[in-house]
Amino acid sequence: MYPRNDYPLIEQAVKSFGLVFHSLEVHPNTLTTHGKHGDKHYKILIDGQSYSIRLLPEQRYAESALSHSTPDLLTEQLRYTDYLRANGIPFMKRVQPIHEGLFTTIRDSTGKEWTCCLFHWLDGHHVTVNTMHSAAQIGTLARQVHDLSRNYQGFHFPFVDHTVAYQRWFHDLQELSFSSMPESVRDSFQEYLSLVQQKIDTARPTNHSSSQSVISTDLNSLNVLWDTTQQIVGIVDHEHIGATDRVQKLAWLIKWYTRTEGIASHDVSGHLAKSLLAHYNSQTVLVPEDDPRLASLLWLSGCFNLHFVEQTTHLLQEAGQHPEQDNPLQLHLETYRLRGERLTGLLS
Questions:
Q1: Neighbouring residues of 307: CB distance < 8 A, sequence distance ≥ 6
Q2: What is the H or E stretch that residue 111 is in?
Q3: Which of 45, 157, 223, 245 is most buried, with most CB under 10 Å away?
């Protein structure tokens, strides 16, 4: 449920776009289901027409090591959504403010600053239990998005190297090793960290052509909308538009779109991986030297992501305070070791 005291802020944000309206309704459920950004994200109805409104606080990711947004970066991300739409990619359509900017800025009653983005609503549903068809559709869409970026003459997004975050998280966890832990727990933890470091070293960007920068967006299952005929009808999140390389993005796509039992499941299918890569036409852009890097990035995406790091941090702290309770941490590490084997097995 959305906090009722957000209504004046939402009303102020809508007015900042220069829209004149007679009625404004806020859908009772917030669209922000998780995340560290601190945004307020709602479906709203303006005179009966549906929109998506996102309010970004001045200090985003205040309690996270993830990257922060800037006005220049947000401007370029929104410009890029226009570029994608102009080239046939069904990104949600933004609402143009009455002034020349791409977004507006307001202050709430406490003086806190909010950046406002407004989009026309897109109807559709999420596909989280994947099929050969959905994997193929995503492979085709991702290739189109990546190839389009090669012709984009505009602002140069900063390149995002995921191994930078992985290495930072590695050091954070390394510092949490407690001398009070049972030796068997400590050994399991250090063994897992050694494996992580090997994967990070292999996953670093190379000089191959496949590591050339492309601009992409976050195509995870909750950002893509499908219609009743199982065709992709929309992409709904601009936040992670940025420069990366094909191998990094393919690793995440394979992790997301090979799941056969939903988002929370670790069950994956090699047939779905082959379908995605075939429809991406990966053999035309990847070289054999990319194989170890792709496998390591795929492993890290599933076995050393932010969710894993947060879970592990909690379990390490518990193990340090209650050394006799060692099973939860060891079971956790074993679960992710098995997940890693399944993920890397997708490429064999």
A1: none
A2: none
A3: 245
* Residue 127: inside a domain: no
Query: pLDDT at position 156, please?
Result: 78
Length of the chain: 348
Both 137 and 110 in one domain: the answer is no
- Tell me: do 278 and 180 sit in the same domain: yes
> Is residue 143 located within the same domain as residue 29?
no
CA distance linking residue 41 with residue 116, whole number of Å: 10
Residue 307, classified by CB atoms within 10 Å of its CB into exposed (0-12), middle (13-18) or buried (19+), is exposed
Q: What is the pLDDT of residue 163?
A: 96
Per-residue pLDDT of 92-106, as tens digits, reads 999 999 988 999 999
Q: Is the pLDDT of residue 68 over 80?
A: no
Q: Average per-residue pLDDT in the chain? A: 90
End-to-end, the C-alpha distance of the chain in Å comes to 45
Cα 273 to Cα 290: distance, rounded to the nearest angstrom: 16
Identity of residue 184: S
The distance from CA 139 to its chain's CA centroid, rounded to whole angstroms, is 17
User: In this predicted model, what pLDDT tens digit does every residue of 41-67 receive, in sequence order?
Assistant: 999 999 999 999 999 988 665 445 555
DSSP string, 280-310: HTGGGT--TTHHHHHHHHHHHHHHSSHHHHH
Statement to judge: residues 90 and 136 lie in one domain: no
Q: What is the CATH number of the domain that holds 292?
A: 3.90.1200.10
Alpha helical stretches, state H, the chain: 7-16, 71-86, 132-149, 162-174, 183-203, 246-257, 270-280, 290-303, 306-321, 327-345
Q: Is residue 125 in some structural domain? A: no
- Together in a domain, 76 and 178: no
Residue 52's domain spans which residues? 4-120
Mean pLDDT within 140-165: 90
Specify the long-range contacts of residues 77-82, CB closer than 8 Å, at least 24 apart: 77/238, 77/239, 77/241, 77/242, 78/102, 78/103, 78/117, 78/238, 79/154, 79/155, 80/152, 80/154, 80/215, 80/238, 80/241, 81/238, 81/241
Domain count for the chain = 2
- 8 A C-beta contact, residue 45 and residue 19: no
